[in-house]
Amino acid sequence: MPRINLDRNKSHRLRIINVGAFAEFQFQIDEHEMAVTEVDGTDVHPVSYHRLNINPAQRYSVVISSDVTSSDAFWMRARMITTCFTDAPKTMQADALAVVAYEDAKVSDPTSKDWEERLEQECRDMNTTDLVPVEAMVAPSEPDAAFYLRSNFEIGAYRLSRGFFNQSSWRPSADSPTLHRAIDGLGTGNETFQAVDEGNHTNDGRAFVNDQAFDDKRELVIQTTGIQVVDLLVSNFDDGNHPLHLHGYKYFVLAQGHGYPPLTHVGAAIDKASLAPLYETLDLSNPLRRDTASVEAFGWILLRVVMDNPGTWAFHCHVSWHAEAGLLMQFLTRSEELATATIPQANLDLCNAPEIMRGVGPDDSVYKEFAK
C-alpha cells in the first residue's frame, strides 16, 4: 500500500493530476479539507472542498493542514465514477487507496471516516464558479470571430464508431504534418491559405475554416491572422463527458451547462444573435483560465481564446480513444508569422524516415471484413 508521510501541524501542497485515459476520479483525504489553490497552472484564491472531481488531463493543487487529532493515519481515496462506464469489467478495481500518515504514526491501518456527502454519479467538471484567479485578467469584451462546434459520435463505414466536430473526424498524416504543409503553403503564398468571403473576395483579417488547403472531412483547421479573440461554443450530442484540451493556450471558461445554451426562443438557429440571453449574462471580470474543461453529456460549454501564439494547435477530447476515433481539430494561429518560419532539417528527415507509418492506426478500410 502506498504511504505518504507528513510532518504534523504544517500546511502541505499536493498536486493532483489525472493521467488516465478515460475515468473521472473523485479524490479525497479522509477528515481533511482541501483548499484548491491552482487549476491547470492558474493560481486561484483558496476555496475548500471535501472531494475533488478531476477529469483526464486536468491538474489541481490543494493545500491540506496536518492538524487533525482524531488519528495518526488516514485513507487517501481516488474513486472512479463508474456510472459513466457502459460496461465496466467485473475485474476492474475502481478505487485507488493510499495511506497518509503523520510523523511517528502508531497506526498502520487507518480507521478514518469517509465524508458523509453522497458520491457524484455524473461525469462532469466540478463546480468551479467559486475559483477566482489570483492574477486578475478581464476577458476581452467581444470576440473577433465565433465558431459553433457539435461534438458527437456516429456509426459510419465498416460499422466503426467515429468522433466528430461538426462533420469532421480527424485522421492524422504522420509523414506530412499539418504544420509542415502550412509553413510550405504560407511561405510560397499559396492562395488556399487566403481567407475568402462569400463574394470570393480576399479578406485576410478574419478567422476562417480553411477547407481549401485542408480536407475538412478529416482535418478541420481554423486559421487566424494577427492576434484575434475567438469564441468556441461546443454542444455535446454524445452521452459521454468530453474533457476538451487545447494545446498552446489557456482559454477563459465563460459558461457551461446542460441541454441547450440560453437562446432567444426555442428552436432558434445557434448564432451570436440567438445567443443574446447567454452573452448578456456573462461575467467577464476575471473568469477562470485553464486548458482542459469538460462539456458534459448532452451539455454545452462556451470558451474564449486570445489567439496570439504562432503554430498549429490541437483541440481535442482527452479521453484517449475518443481522440483516436477522430474527436480532434486544430487551430492554425498567427499564420503571418508562420509564413517566414523554417522547418528544421531534423524534422524533415523524421517525416521521410523509413517505416514512419509503423505504429500509426490502420485505415478504416482494414475493418471491411469485420463489418460483414
Describe the structure.
The protein is mainly beta. It contains five helices and 21 strands. It has two domains: 100 residues, Cupredoxins -  blue copper proteins (Immunoglobulin-like, Sandwich); 222 residues, Cupredoxins -  blue copper proteins (Immunoglobulin-like). Helix content is 8%, strand content 34%. It is globular. The N and C termini lie far apart (48 Å). The mean pLDDT is 93.
- Could you tell me the strand content as a percent range? 25-35%
The CATH superfamily of the largest domain appears as Cupredoxins -  blue copper proteins
Average pLDDT, all residues: 93
User: What would you report as the Rg, rounded to the nearest angstrom?
Assistant: 23 Å
CATH architectural grouping of the largest domain = Sandwich
Poorly predicted parts: none
Give a summary of the structure in a few sentences.
The chain has helices at 178-187, 276-279, 320-324, 335-338, 345-351, and strands spanning 3-6, 11-17, 25-29, 34-39, 42-49, 52-54, 59-65, 73-80, 95-102, 145-155, 161-165, 208-209, 221-223, 228-236, 242-246, 251-258, 289-290, 292-295, 299-307, 311-317, 328-333. It has 372 residues and is mainly beta. The protein folds into two domains: 3-102, Immunoglobulin-like (Sandwich); 145-366, Cupredoxins -  blue copper proteins (Immunoglobulin-like, Sandwich).
List keywords for this structure.
372 residues, mainly beta, Immunoglobulin-like, six-stranded mixed β-sheet, 5 helices
Sequence-ordered SSE layout with sheet pairings:
Blueprint: E1 3-6, E2 11-17, E3 25-29, E4 34-39, E5 42-49, E6 52-54, E7 59-65, E8 73-80, E9 95-102, E10 145-155, E11 161-165, H1 178-187, E12 208-209, E13 221-223, E14 228-236, E15 242-246, E16 251-258, H2 276-279, E17 289-290, E18 292-295, E19 299-307, E20 311-317, H3 320-324, E21 328-333, H4 335-338, H5 345-351
